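User: Okay, second chain of the day. Same drill as before: sequence in, structure tokens out.
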Amino acid sequence: MTALLERADQAISVTAMVRGFSARLKEISSRATERLVIFKDNQPAAVIINVDAYQEMLDELDNLRIEAAARERLSGFNQSKAVSHDDMRARYAKKD
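Assistant: Same drill. Structure tokens below.
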């Protein structure tokens, strides 16, 4: 949770957010502000980020999951059971 805030201007109270929602939304959508952490009762309650930044975050998470799956599969790789590229081409080549 400590990584939520890099700068004090990324924090905003619920009351301040309600009062200046349109201006704050414009800051986020234009990426003038990377993210806003909304506090309620002095506790982080929500984070607002730009849609493109959110998609980039999801893409990065997906890439990390794929990499983890690949590493897991490679850890159990048995070279003696591997099939060469030439053998695969011969096995699955179209026979006219």
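The CA atoms of residues 71 and 77 lie 10 Å apart.

User: Thanks, on to the next one.
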